[in-house]
Amino acid sequence: MKTIRKIFGIFLLALRASLRTKTVFALLLLMVTSVFLLPAVVKGDGTPQGDCHILVLYTLGFSFALLCLSTLWAACALFAAEIDNQLIQLSAVKPVCAFEFWLGRWFALLLLNAIALFAVYSAVYLQLRWKQRQPGWRESVQLVNRSVVHPLLPTPQEEAQEAYELLAKQKELPQGLSKAQILRVLTTKAQERYTIVNPGESISWRFQLPRPIATNELITIRLRFDTEYSTRTQVTGVCRIASDVLDAPMVEVPLDDFSLQEIEFDLSCQAFHLKHDLSGINLFFTHTGNPAKASALMLRFRKDVVVLTQGGSFEANLLRSALVHWSVLALLAAFGLTLSACFSLPVAVFSSTILLLLVMIGTSVTEVVSVEEEKEWLKKPGILVSRGVSAIAHHALRIDPLESVINGERIEDQAVGEALAWNVLLSPACFAFLGILILRRRELASGD
Amino acid sequence: MNHLIQIKNLGKTFKDFWYRPVIEAVKDLNLTIQQGEVFGLLGPNGSGKSTTLKMLLGLLRPTRGTIELFEGLRPEDVAVKARLGYLPEVSHLHEFLTPRETLMYYAALFGLPQVDAKRRTKELLQMVGLESVADRAVGRFSKGMARRVGLAQALINAPELLILDEPTSGLDPIGCREVKDLVRLLAKSGVTVLMTSHLLADVEDVCDRVAIMNKGERCAYGSTRDLLRNPDMVRFSVSGLTAEVAAEIRLQLEQRAARPVQQDFPEMSLEAYFLKVVSPDANNTAFKVAPFLEKKQ
User: Is the pLDDT assigned to residue B297 strictly greater than 50?
Assistant: First the structure.
């Protein structure tokens, strides 16, 4: 009970420290600007979908980025500024353990972030609903939440392992690289692999639905594709869909407008003439374009071919998105607090900003590294650091919730759970351990 | 008597960024402080007083030597921190908090239940005379008022050991007098007080024993009375003598002692005169010890 009282006291102080500074008002002003002015200022493509895109992706994305920076810097200041100003001396001589100091401050940042995210998401949601009342919006923008079902395929890791074994069998493995390095390259390639569908060719996929779909429900098929040199050529095709029951009748959907390089159509399950719920489907696609004129279609089949089923309300998806964002902010708060326990305020802020930049560009750096560059001893440490930071960031930012919200794709419970477990429990626990260790070892005062 | 603080061969060397020794702030210090006494640590600026206090509080780590508090505990122990109160040289308070919030915060750090914390806060604010400004931000306070808040926070846990670093710094003579009275009252109730001060008169007024430090070393150590006593001199103070009688007594003393006798007319101290002029009823306006501290008595 005493521990809870102590943590609550520190929590309350951190809250007051945050709310009684001018910086908070500046942040509030920026948030209001981003939520209400940004959608008005940024010009879309004139369509309601474009406006919706700006409202969700730009407004929420910008507000989230603002919160990321402010959380990181506020966390950096919480210990460092108190140590620098000697304010911590009075607290440090009280019977408070380092973990109580750390947790109290972290909880305060969690609550502040929750409030800020709730406000931003609510403002955007209300704007979306208000705009939906306007003519044109109701028909063209559907605020939906659909489960995404990918085709049954081996995982990129399995595919990479298989490719590795094949290369080993043929004795064609690249020299001077470890197995892990080769597998990493192969996995990346497998994730982004294209299937080329030439005019006249067919391709098929099998989908196992996560729950039985009732006959009165709708499913949506979505195909995204690229063409050679990314030209927007008119390509025609036919989709044939059948349930996974043996000898099931096929539903044929002709497709002839690929100008947006994405096609999406709804299908009532009644079309399958099933006596029971739908549990899986087989999808066949035939490129019916003229072989002499039409371009080949390039499909990243792990990402571009999906079946969408009813996944719940749009509001629930928005809430999941907010939860994922909140979890990332929790991780940043923990990271900032640990830096704050290690360094003075300027050093903590500088190093946190550098690491943030490294996260943003790390993936690009590691992706373009050639095998030869990887061997150079001068570049090796930099590559290793970039890879390490990217690997950690990859776990934290595994899903892009706003992309899912704008695409009407359900953010799965498992993904939210993983984000919460990694960003709110596991990583902060590691950072807390490190921060507490340093706080216990550090001298919190200077001499006379 | 029990040893509340035992310092043996204590040393502190500050190092620079490259871990090269720069200043030896405290050298081979040995001190023992008994339970219930008021101990003064004196010395000029940079003599190592505050560094010693910070090592006692666990804010700095000794380079050499040992510190034992409450019979065998180390300064870093949470059990030690629960039993002491500390007023630093500069109050270092959160400027955005009010005195009430400040005291409630420090009460929470001791894990005090809300009801107790509220009661103690109220009593302490009354004690230090800040009840009327209890909801004004500390950042707007004068140095003396902030000092009072600092003193109140040091007493929120009814400490057994009170460490005061320059407690009268920034206070006016009335405030100084009140603090000294409070120290005496707390000492009477069994609280051990360790204080540092530049103002030697303050220390002389309240301390049972003192240690004088210079350049990190202990130069003198012992009971205040013993240290200040001039063993060869005797002073008599008598009131109501006429000048003739005084001259007669002086003559007799000179004859008896066979050496000249110095005669003077005792003056009150400037502090006492100031208090007499500014606050004739100073005795009535002195700190009233908070009831929760009295209960401890």
Answer: no
